[in-house]
Amino acid sequence: MPEPEPEVSHAKPVLYTGGSRFLRYWPPAMLVVAAGAVVAGSVAAGAVLASPGVLAALFLPWGFVIDDDGIGLRYGLGKRRFLTKDSVTVDVAHGTIVLHRSGTRGFGVPLTDGAGDERRPYVQAVLAEHGFALTR
User: Fold this and answer.
1) In which region does residue 129 sit, left (phi positive, over 0), alpha (psi from -120 to 50) or beta (all else)?
2) CB 3.0–4.6 Å: which of 8, 10, 16, 124 could bond 66 by disulfide?
3) How far apart are CA 86 and CA 15, in angstroms?
4) For the chain, what are the domain ranges?
5) What distance in Å separates the CA atoms of residue 28 and residue 26, rounded to the nearest whole number?
6) Within 10 A of 118 (CB to CB), how many other CB atoms are there?
7) Count of Cβ atoms closer than 10 Å to residue 1 Cβ
8) Per the confidence metrics, is the pTM higher than 0.90?
9) How far is Cα 60 from Cα 89, in angstroms, rounded to an integer?
10) Is 3 in contact with 47 (CB distance < 8 Å)?
11) Burial class for 115, CB neighbours closer than 10 Å (0-12, 13-18, 19+)
C-alpha cells in the first residue's frame, strides 16, 4: 500500500504571534458582571459596567499575528482585521509598540504582548527584518 502524501500548506508562515490574556478575558468578564447587575435590578450599574468592556472589545486587539504580508489583529466579539505591510507604520519609540495607518500619527492600535516588555526587542527585530516601516 503506498504511503499517503504529506499535506501541503499554502498558508503564509507566521513570524510572530502575540497577545494579552488580560485584554482577551477582561471585556467578557465585565459583560458578565454587568449582566449580573442588570439581573440584580440595577440597569444603570449594568450600563456603566458594560461600557468599558464593550469599548475595549471593539477597539483594543487582544492578539496579533505577524507574517510576511502584514499584521493580523484579533479583537473581542469575534472581530478580525488584517493590515498589509504597506498600509501601516509601526511606532517602536515608546513603551508599547503601536500600529498606525501610514501617514497618520493620531490614534494607533497597541500591539500588547503580555504585562511586561521582555519580548519587545524580539518583536521589533521581526518587524524590522521583514520590511515593516518603523518610527523611532
Assistant:
1) alpha
2) 16
3) 17
4) 17-135
5) 6
6) 9
7) 3
8) no
9) 17
10) no
11) exposed
Q: What are phi and psi of 86, to 5 degrees?
A: -75, -20
Consecutive sets of 10 residues in the chain, 136 residues long: mean pLDDT of each? 48 82 90 94 93 91 90 89 90 81 78 71 86 84
Q: How far apart are CA 115 and CA 131, in angstroms?
A: 27
CB-side neighbour CA atoms (13 Å) of 100: 16
In this structure, are strands 133-135 and 88-91 parallel, antiparallel, or unpaired? parallel
Hey, what amino acid is at 7? E
Listing from the earlier edge strand, what are the strands of the sheet with 98-101? 109-110, 98-101, 88-91, 133-135
